[in-house]
């Protein structure tokens, strides 16, 4: 993979720099509930400040505002306040939510020019949005000298390892409910894996129609935690996947599957995990996901975790520091591993 040119190559002394960061963080009661993405943006911002940038203008989307009422809900103010606490430098200016502008998601040139106005160069450090051709991620890169931020480069370098020669066994673990979002990566990356473990709602779909080429070793759940309704306090029972009572739902993998999956993961030399094993939002159906999180942490090989619920699981399980790389981009990482070009990356000139 040819990498985009690095912000380290840029002469930023005395310059105004526009940085597209990924500050799309969860909010609760008007405050930032999880500042992991804000912290992830700090190395690039500090580099620019340390090298004498006159001004660092940071832009990001926040949520998916669609109505006028959403403008108050998704205003950038709480994010701006948290960033200022972490990086109290008056040269850092945080712009309003880019998605408040109608032209942002349309990659409108007029809005891209509005963002670029007054800046000398552009740095994209928002890997989580690099798969979107928006004004702030792709359009502005054609208007200013463009560079890749440190986080964006780290993401590309770590994920690219899965596309080259890997240590084997290579185990791909996939779950969640959005099967259509992951079929492409299951086809491409699954063809390179020694073993593919499928949980969550995806397992039911894969059991009916597999996207894998012949010869791929696919492991599906053998037992499940079944519930009599889709509810956090539903009546449950552990049973074979072939013996789920009529009208009941499989909301987590069962203990037999947890042990089988964990054994495969621990024995691997390379692991990529994206997607929970069940309805992770409800504690009674989270154990399968936690079992996978612990197994990935116990693997002595190279491990990557991506996707919101999977990342949350390794943090809640207290094992995040034992994962080789935790990706900040769900959709972007899947598209990259599927072999697709990321517009936000392609718009930046290649290194060298």
- Uncertain parts: none
At CATH level 3, the topology of the largest domain is Rossmann fold
Strand content: 15-25%
Radius of gyration (Å): 21 Å
Count of discrete domains: 2
How many distinct helices?
A: 12
CATH class of the largest domain: Alpha Beta
Using DSSP, what is the number of strands? Answer: 16
Secondary-structure element order, N to C: EEEHEHHEHEEHEHEHEEEEHEHEHEHH
Give the biggest beta sheet.
6 strands, parallel
> Looking at this structure, what is the CATH superfamily of the largest domain?
Phosphoglycerate kinase, N-terminal domain
CATH architectural grouping of the largest domain: 3-Layer(aba) Sandwich
How helical, in percent, are the residues?
25-40%
What gap, in angstroms, lies between the N and C termini?
13 Å
**Which strand order does the major sheet show?**
10-9-8-14-15-16
Could you tell me the mean pLDDT?
93
What structural class do you assign from the helix and strand content?
alpha/beta
What global shape is seen?
globular
């Amino acid at each position: 993979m040819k990498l985009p040119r690095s912000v380290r190559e840029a002469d930023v002394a005395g310059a105004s720099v526009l940085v597209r960061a990924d500050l799309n963080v969860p909010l609760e009661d008007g405050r930032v509930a999880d500042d992991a993405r804000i912290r992830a943006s700090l190395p690039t911002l500090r580099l620019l400040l340390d090298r004498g940038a006159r001004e660092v203008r940071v832009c990001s989307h926040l949520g998916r505002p669609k109505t006028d009422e959403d403008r108050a809900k998704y205003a950038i103010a709480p994010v701006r306040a948290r960033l200022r606490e972490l990086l109290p430098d008056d040269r850092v200016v945080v712009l309003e939510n880019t998605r408040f502008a109608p032209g942002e998601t349309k990659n409108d040139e007029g809005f891209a020019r509005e963002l670029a106005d007054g800046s000398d160069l552009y740095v994209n450090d928002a890997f989580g949005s690099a798969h979107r051709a928006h004004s702030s991620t792709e359009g502005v890169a054609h208007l200013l000298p463009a560079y890749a931020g440190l986080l964006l480069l780290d993401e590309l370098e770590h994920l690219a390892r899965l596309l080259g020669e890997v240590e084997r066994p290579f185990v791909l673990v996939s779950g969640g409910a959005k099967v259509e979002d992951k079929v492409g990566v299951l086809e491409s990356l699954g063809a390179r894996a020694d073993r593919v473990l499928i949980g969550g709602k995806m397992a039911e779909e894969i059991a009916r129609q597999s996207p894998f080429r012949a010869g791929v070793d696919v492991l599906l759940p053998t037992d499940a935690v079944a519930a009599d309704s889709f509810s956090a306090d539903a009546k449950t029972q552990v049973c074979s996947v072939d013996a789920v009572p009529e009208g009941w739902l499989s909301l987590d993998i069962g203990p037999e599957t947890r042990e089988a999956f964990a054994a495969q993961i621990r024995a691997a030399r390379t692991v990529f995990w994206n997607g929970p094993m069940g309805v992770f939002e409800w504690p009674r159906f989270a154990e399968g996901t936690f079992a996978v999180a612990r197994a990935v942490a116990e693997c002595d090989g190279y491990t990557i975790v991506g996707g919101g619920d999977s990342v949350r699981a390794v943090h809640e399980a207290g094992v995040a520091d034992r994962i080789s790389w935790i990706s900040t981009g769900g959709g972007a990482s899947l598209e990259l591993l599927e072999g697709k070009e990321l517009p936000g990356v392609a718009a930046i000139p290649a290194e060298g």
